[in-house]
Please model this.
Amino acid sequence: VLLSNGTILIFMTIIVIIGIIYCYCRESLSYYADERSPELEVIIFMKNAQNEVEGIVRDYYKKEVKPRELWIVDCGSRDQTTQILQRLSRQFLELRLLFLSDMPFAICVQEALKLINAPALLLIDGTNLRCKDVLELTNLLHAKKNVAIGLKSYEK
Model:
């Protein structure tokens, strides 16, 4: 069966139109795909929390949905918190530790922000929290007054 030149031209025109529509849709959908929210890094600041730290870390990693890493910043503990954290870091490879000297909480936060490179941070003052409290705080729907959520500024 021979096709006329007009039929071939119509067929090729339809193919070109479908290709243009496909490229347009793909481009417009990729624009929205790039607007995903940034990955959230959870940072828990602790001091002298030997009775709670292991439960907090284990419960955090039991969750199905979790950020890439969990940062624990020790703000100068004098109990067994440091040793427990070091042991847990060998068990949970995503656990990141930062040990600071005994300093006020605000300065601990500033020091941690200098070293942690993430676009979005969830900062938790874990000095007076129980395991259950920290797990509730990592769920953004249950944010409380001792949680600060925001985008990290890249201005130097």
